UniProtKB/TrEMBL annotation, chain A:
Protein name per Swiss-Prot or TrEMBL: ATP synthase subunit b
Membrane-traversing stretches: 22-41
Cross-referenced PANTHER family: ATP SYNTHASE SUBUNIT B, ATP SYNTHASE SUBUNIT B', CHLOROPLASTIC
Record keywords: ATP synthesis, Cell membrane, CF(0), Coiled coil, Hydrogen ion transport, Hydrolase, Ion transport, Membrane, Transmembrane, Transmembrane helix, Transport
Keyword Zinc-finger among record annotations: no
Cellular compartment(s): Cell membrane; Endomembrane system
Parts forming coiled coils: 59-130
GO MF terms held by the record: hydrolase activity; proton-transporting ATP synthase activity, rotational mechanism; proton-transporting ATPase activity, rotational mechanism
Source species taxonomy: Bacteria, Bacillati, Bacillota, Bacilli, Bacillales
Gene3D superfamilies per UniProt: 6.10.250.1580
Automatic annotation (TrEMBL), chain B:
Subcellular localization(s) per the UniProt record: Cell membrane; Membrane
UniProt xrefs under Pfam families: ATP-synt_A
Organism (species): Oceanobacillus bengalensis
Keywords: ATP synthesis, Cell membrane, CF(0), Hydrogen ion transport, Hydrolase, Ion transport, Membrane, Transmembrane, Transmembrane helix, Transport
One GO BP: proton motive force-driven plasma membrane ATP synthesis
Role this protein plays: Key component of the proton channel; it plays a direct role in the translocation of protons across the membrane.
SUPFAM superfamilies assigned to the protein according to its UniProt record, in alphabetical order: F1F0 ATP synthase subunit A
PROSITE patterns assigned to the protein according to its UniProt record, in alphabetical order: ATPASE_A
GO MF annotation, one: hydrolase activity
Protein name in the entry: ATP synthase subunit a
GO CC terms in record: plasma membrane; proton-transporting ATP synthase complex
Stored InterPro entries: ATP_syn_F0_a_bact/chloroplast (IPR045082), ATP_synth_F0_asu (IPR000568), ATP_synth_F0_asu_AS (IPR023011), F0_ATP_A_sf (IPR035908)
Length: 175, 239
């Protein structure tokens, strides 16, 4: 302890060892410390703390929005896929409907044609029969007329009567 | 080098109260410079720092780094303002003496306050007393006294001596560096002022001023660094 005080005295003697200076230094330093803490370091560190928190918050928010965007893009992709599938389905349906309609039309046309054909055939048959009937009738009267003209000179009234009767009989049997 | 100090002995009629008025002046000047600079530099704090706010934040980060090197941040947070104030005060003090030395009459008025052993020892003693204070406050008096007798009670005298040597080395290292710088500067200035061939002395003077600036910065850093080391010895539980 003695040597320590000795050293202190020795060292301090270089600049002089005064309690007044010590007191001034100590007080000045403490005042400086308090003032700076209040006016400089305090606000400064507060601001740095605030910035740190702000940056952390921003990073968190960015991370969050990134996740959200990812989710949204995933959703959109899924929706797009679904829409595509739906469109595909609709096209297929339309195609099927078209094919069916085509077949229906063809079928209907064929039926119509068939019906018209049958009708025409029936008409033709009808006409033919009518024509035959008319022809038959005419042939009968004509032949009678011709026969009458031929026979008029050769056969008697009596013979004629007989002949007509026979003819009529024949015609009646023929019918 | 035969400048005198403007002494005021037996101030207010108290026999042991002596002042070196140059010291008093320079302490106040340094403190005011540091205070004005800091308040000015951190007057408009913004989220996006510009200009001097960047510098101040760099300083805070720098001292934070020193604290982090020696102890964990939870206990070291308290010492950040102390470290910052010490760093700036000592640096500005050192620089004041490097840039200018003012002599009025035969008295050396303008110099580094840190070129006076009384003042540096006051600072170092303040720091060491603070380490004891925080050692007791943060670790409890039981743990505090236990550090003196661990690992073996035989260490007790050495531990006690260590506290005083720490104070001495911390203060005298700063004082020695700055004082030596000022002595050499004064010699060089005297050489230049002598005229004639002495004017050549302006070249080593510029070199020495540059070196003194460097030394001044380094010593401020070392002082803060050692403060934190001593502090960590007292407040960290693993010691």
């Amino acid at each position: 302890m003695q040597s320590y005080v000795g050293l202190m005295t020795l060292s301090a003697s270089v600049g002089g060892f005064r309690f007044g200076d010590m007191a001034v230094q100590l007080i000045a330093f403490i005042i400086l410390l308090i003032l700076l803490k209040k006016f400089a370091w305090g606000p400064l560190m507060n601001m740095m703390q605030k910035r740190e928190e702000y940056v952390a918050g921003e990073i968190e928010a960015a991370e969050k929005s990134r996740l959200e965007a990812e989710q949204a893009s995933k959703d959109a992709a899924a929706e797009l896929l679904q829409v595509k599938q739906e469109a595909q389905k609709m096209i297929e349906n339309a195609k099927n409907a078209g094919v069916k309609q085509e077949q229906d039309i063809i079928e209907a046309a064929r039926k119509e044609a068939e019906r018209i054909k049958v009708q025409a055939q029936a008409d033709i048959q009808n006409e033919k029969e009518q024509a035959i009937q008319v022809l038959q009738a005419q042939v009968a009267s004509l032949s009678v007329l011709i026969a009458g003209k031929v026979i008029e000179k050769e056969i008697s009234e009596k013979d004629q009567e007989e002949l007509i009767n026979t003819f009529l009989k024949e015609v009646g049997e023929g019918r | 080098m035969n400048h005198e100090a403007p002494l005021l002995n037996d101030a207010f009629g108290i026999s042991w109260l002596d002042f070196n008025l140059a010291n008093v002046l320079m302490i106040i000047v340094s403190s005011v410079v540091v205070f004005v600079f800091c308040v000015w530099a951190s007057r408009k704090l913004q989220m996006k720092p510009t200009g001097f706010q960047n510098f101040m934040e760099w300083l805070v980060e720098f001292v934070k780094g020193i604290v982090n090197d020696t102890m964990d941040w939870k206990t070291g947070k308290v010492f950040l303002p102390l470290g910052l104030t010490l760093l700036l005060y000592i640096f500005v003090s050192n620089m004041l003496g490097v840039m200018t030395n003012g002599v009025v009459g035969h008295d050396l008025w303008w110099k580094s306050p840190t070129a006076d052993a009384t003042l540096t020892l006051t600072l170092s003693a303040t720091v060491i007393i603070l380490t004891h204070f925080y050692g007791i406050k943060l670790q409890g008096s039981k743990h505090y006294f236990k550090t003196f007798v661990s690992p073996v009670p035989l260490m007790l005298p050495f531990k006690i001596i260590e506290e005083f040597t720490n104070t001495l080395t911390l203060g005298l290292r700063l004082f020695g560096n700055i004082y030596a710088g000022e002595v050499l500067l004064t010699l060089l200035v005297g050489m230049v002022m002598a005229g004639g061939l002495g004017v050549v002395g302006i070249i080593p003077m510029v070199v020495w001023q540059a070196f003194s600036t460097f030394i001044g910065a380094i010593q401020a850093y070392v002082f803060v660094m050692l403060t934190m080391v001593y502090m960590s010895h007292k407040v960290s539980s693993d010691h």
